[in-house]
Write a structure and sequence with these properties.
CATH class: Alpha Beta
Largest sheet: 7 strands, antiparallel
CATH architecture: 3-Layer(aba) Sandwich
CATH superfamily: DD-peptidase/beta-lactamase superfamily
Oligomer: single chain
Helix content: 25-40%
Number of helices: 13
Structural class: alpha+beta
Length: 409
């Protein structure tokens, strides 16, 4: 498989692992991008966008990066917080009065970011295409009774996060989430990163290739096993009550790409992910574009919610005000071992099936990986983790024996 693009010699191992992903790990089409101290040191792409057509993955191919979208949505909230326009410790109802229903009057903004609001799903059956209707989804969530007492635990808000945090962004800024991101982040930084994709760019999107969960020997995460066994459980409500979004005919549709969902559905590539996190790796500013103040970056990277059993995904998770933190799940059963192994200073977000974007302030590192062939889990699988590991090794980092985090003495 020809690997296209460029890399700096110290990062040759990243290129080698990227090539191995295609040769040995089932990669179909992908891109990886790394910046250090603001400079691009890796920018690679390879493969095909669609095995059915054999169309080559190009320099500007886009793909749905799934929950990496949450990093973009969380960033929008932090921009407003950094400007003093949004208080993360205030009740959500201060900005979104209709939210104060069914026991949610005291839910705080940061509890939305921390996946503590008890709204991982909704009980009301969603009609087909519900996720493409922002007003419908925000109305349902405003009226919903939480699935647990808010603040008592956390459970990944896998598909509702964007409607919740994004509506707060809309109420505070007066602009829809996708417009805010385009005007405050993607535009100023020159990023090919879309929370709502224009029809003119649709031809560049590589369709997502979901894993075959029925294939013999495939390890199915407990999240999906529990959901299929009982749709009324929290995992079941999260992944089965989606109005058809989690079917290929849903997430690969033009309507999905055009809609703003905010938790998933952003179309970009590795360069876009690394580019979004580049200012954060440098304290909040790059090329005279300040996204947030350095004090806000510190808040973005601080663990604020962690538990040994996430109520929605049924594995340990750790969050920092809307971003994921390094989490070692390799001690779990083989079907639940996917996590994310970064340095303790890093924060970002993975995307279902393996995509990843993050910033590491200490290393002045930003990273992006995007692909079309999904793995079975919602964390980072061997393909993405091999690229992360090679990147940290190139920077002189070592991996802890216990916990797997990367560190530099």
């Amino acid at each position: 498989m020809p690997i296209l693009g460029t890399y700096s010699p110290p990062f040759a191992e990243v290129a080698a692992e990227f090539e191995r992903n295609f040769a040995e790990r089932g990669e179909v089409g992908a891109s990886v991008s790394v910046t250090v101290d603001g400079q691009t040191v890796v920018d690679l792409w390879a493969g095909v966008t669609d095995p059915a057509t054999g169309a080559e993955w190009s320099e500007d191919t886009l793909v749905d990066v799934w929950s990496c979208t949450k990093g973009a949505t969380a960033l929008c909230a932090h921009i407003l917080a950094s400007r003093g326009e949004l208080d993360l410790n205030a009740p959500v109802a201060k900005y979104w009065p209709e939210f104060a229903q069914n026991g949610k009057e005291a839910v705080l903004v940061h509890q939305l970011l921390d996946h503590q609001a008890g709204l991982s799903g909704v009980r009301e059956p969603l009609p087909e295409g519900a996720f493409f209707d922002w007003e419908k989804m925000t109305g349902l969530l405003a009226a919903a009774e939480p699935l647990w007492a808010p603040g008592t635990t956390h459970g990944y808000h896998g598909l509702t996060f964007g409607f919740l945090v994004g509506e707060v962004v809309r109420r505070v800024s007066g602009r829809p989430l996708a417009q805010f991101f385009a005007e405050e982040v993607a535009g100023p930084l020159g990023l090919d990163f879309w929370l709502s994709l224009p029809e003119s760019e649709e031809h560049r999107v590589a369709p997502t290739l979901p894993p075959d969960m029925t294939k013999p020997g495939v390890l199915v995460p407990s999240l999906y096993l529990t959901a299929m066994a009982d749709p009324a459980t929290i995992p079941g409500l999260m992944v089965l009550n989606t109005g058809g979004y989690l079917l290929p005919s849903g997430f690969n549709s033009r309507e999905a790409h055009a809609s703003t969902i905010g938790a998933v559905g952003a179309c970009t590539n590795a360069r876009g992910l690394a580019g979004m996190y580049r200012p954060l790796a440098l304290g909040g500013t790059f090329a005279d574009v300040q996204l947030v103040k350095p004090s806000q970056v510190a808040i973005m990277g601080q663990v604020t919610s962690a538990c040994s059993m996430d109520a929605a995904v049924l594995v340990p998770t750790r969050f920092a005000r809307g971003f994921g933190k390094t989490t070692d799940n390799r001690h779990l059963a083989p079907n639940d071992q996917e996590g994310i192994l970064l340095s303790e200073e890093a924060f970002g977000h993975s995307g279902m099936g393996g995509a990843l974007g993050f910033a590491d302030l200490k290393a002045k590192l930003s990273f992006g990986y995007a692909m079309n062939q999904q793995g079975t889990g919602i964390g980072v699988n061997e393909r993405g983790q091999s690229l992360v590991d090679a990147t940290y090794r190139a920077l002189g980092y070592h991996q802890m024996t216990e916990g797997g985090s990367w560190f530099k003495q």
